From TrEMBL:
This is Dyp-type peroxidase. Belongs to the DyP-type peroxidase family. Its cofactor is heme b. Pfam families: DyP_N. The lineage of its organism: Bacteria, Bacillati, Actinomycetota, Actinomycetes, Pseudonocardiales. Residues 44-175 form the DyP dimeric alpha+beta barrel domain.
């Protein structure tokens, strides 16, 4: 039976084409792979034949999604350590240099992130301001990830050893995952990140249902069609699949963001512990992950809740319309589309933080003690249609002051990732209260330093080169 893309996949019971698909799919697409230590290598090919030979040899260092899922199972059962993740993706320019013609043809993928049209659409900064390694034409990315620096670095060095002289490393990013005092992954502004994800595996949906706060209010299940596309250049696109991969190096000016939190708390007259609510109004969750729409204060962190919508917060008296997570997933309340269509914009986020800093992101210290550069997020996400997922989220939601669509209200840009001219936004003074106050625009503290769109093909395609 052909692979059913219209629903989630039960990988433990998969047979036939679905099992073959998992055996040729790259890991980290359907389910996140451990990558607290990550190297992202951006490559340019100088010679088609040598680049092909390199990619074939790289498959000897890669494992399948099936092998990854088996490793996760073995880890749970007997604590057995897994092997490193090695992922490989090609840009449209990379496919062309290799001389591959029938590669996947997503419209945004074909134009690439550096194209003037992409820049206009997303309000991205000029290409000339990117870090030097991202200013030229990128052909491929190789991701190496693992739980320890040692294992990751060893595999990275093996891969560098495979590179012929005609393949140039244009840039390398080193991801370093961070956790809070409870061991939850956080980003550099100090907030729990990576919690809300579309889930493509039936087993993961069941685990969410039975072992967390449940799925009866917000069901994270998503069909395979939202992340997988047939790998048209592979030997058998009926069983060989891949996914479009977005990479964006987003630098975070933590000092500026923490100052903005303090300024907002001052504007609203928040005092004591309630000052934490200012930052929560920018993100939509408190630092510990507690959703602001469900609770006036933090503390609902175990497990970090995700079983919520904005249905009992229609006027945004608890969580502002413009909060980062409300802009990027309105959970049925966006006002522009039917909830089922709105869900189609969600993507599988696989980011990792980068950069080191001396201060504890969650400590109560003045903004001056925060880094103003050198740290950020290696934003990574898998999509089946870039224009309807990543690009839609950035351009039509985050950058659009009029979203969500609410009569008489202009929510403003996403205070975290919005690109474009920022205006003032409204906030409720007391959680759930009726008094609103308008606050000055939140200054932009996230800056794009480079990136591109890639396709992460099937292992069968890479071996066939
Ligand atoms: C430095 C940049 C960014 C920071 C600091 C950041 C921070 C966060 C945090 C703290 C969360 C809450 C954790 C969770 O619900 O899983 C979150 C969720 C999310 N972010 Fe971001 N993010 C960044 C960039 C982006 C970008 C570029 C996009 C897409 C264009 C994006 C889309 C989302 C989505 C879709 C969610 C989940 C919302 C939900 O389902 O409720 N983020 N982000
Ligand atoms: Mn704080």
């Amino acid at each position: 039976m052909s692979v059913d893309l219209s629903t989630t996949l039960s990988w433990t019971t998969a047979t036939g084409d679905a099992a073959t698909m998992l055996g040729e799919l790259q890991p980290n697409i359907l389910k996140a792979h451990v990558r607290d230590h990550l190297s992202a290598l951006f490559l340019a090919f100088g010679d088609a034949a040598e680049a092909r030979t390199f990619l074939v040899s790289l498959t000897g260092k890669m494992k399948s999604a099936k092998a990854h899922l088996d490793e996760v199972g073995a880890f749970k059962a007997e604590g057995a350590a897994g092997t490193p993740y090695v992922g490989a993706g090609l840009t449209a320019a990379g496919y062309r240099v290799l001389g591959v013609e029938n590669f996947p043809q997503d419209e945004a993928f074909l134009r690439g992130m550096a194209a003037a049209e992409t820049r206009r659409k997303l309000n991205d900064p000029p290409h000339s301001t990117f870090d030097p390694g991202y200013r030229g034409e990128i052909h491929a990315v190789v991701l190496v990830g693992d739980a320890t620096d040692k294992a990751m670095t060893a595999r990275r060095n093996e891969i560098l050893g495979l590179l012929p002289d005609s393949v140039t490393v244009l840039a390398e990013e080193t991801g370093l995952g961070r956790v809070n005092a409870r061991g939850e992954g956080i980003e550099h502004f100090g907030y729990v990140d990576g919690r809300s994800q579309p889930l493509f595996l039936t087993e993961d949906v069941d685990a969410e249902k039975n072992n967390t706060d449940g799925i009866n209010v917000w069901n994270p299940a998503a069909p395979l069609s939202q992340v997988l596309v047939p790998d048209t250049a592979a030997p058998d696109p009926g069983v060989h699949f891949g996914s479009y991969f977005v990479f964006r190096k987003l630098e975070q000016n933590v000092r500026r963001f923490k100052q903005a939190e303090a300024d907002l708390a001052d504007t609203l007259g928040l005092t004591g512990d309630d000052r934490e609510r200012a930052g929560a109004m920018l993100i939509g969750r408190f630092e510990d992950g507690t959703p602001l729409t469900t609770q006036r204060e933090d503390g609902a962190e175990s497990p970090v809740s995700n079983n919520f919508t904005y249905d009992s917060d229609r006027a945004a008296l608890k969580c502002p319309f413009q909060a980062h997570i409300r802009k990027t997933n309105p959970r049925g309340s966006g006002g522009a589309e039917e909830p089922a269509d709105e869900r189609l914009h969600l993507m599988a986020r696989r980011g990792v933080t980068y950069g080191e800093r001396p201060d504890d992101p969650n400590a109560d210290v003045p903004p001056a003690a925060r880094p103003s550069g050198g740290v950020g997020l290696l934003f990574m996400a898998f999509n089946s249609v870039l224009g309807n997922q990543f690009e839609f989220t950035q351009a039509i939601w985050a950058d659009n002051p009029g979203f969500p669509i609410v009569e008489g209200v202009t929510p403003g840009l996403d205070p975290v990732i919005g690109q474009g001219t920022r205006g003032p936004s409204d906030y409720t003074v007391d959680w759930g209260g009726s008094a609103q106050r308008t606050a000055d625009p939140v200054p932009q503290s996230v800056t794009l330093r480079g990136g591109d769109y890639f396709f992460m093909p099937s292992l069968a395609f890479l071996r066939s080169l």
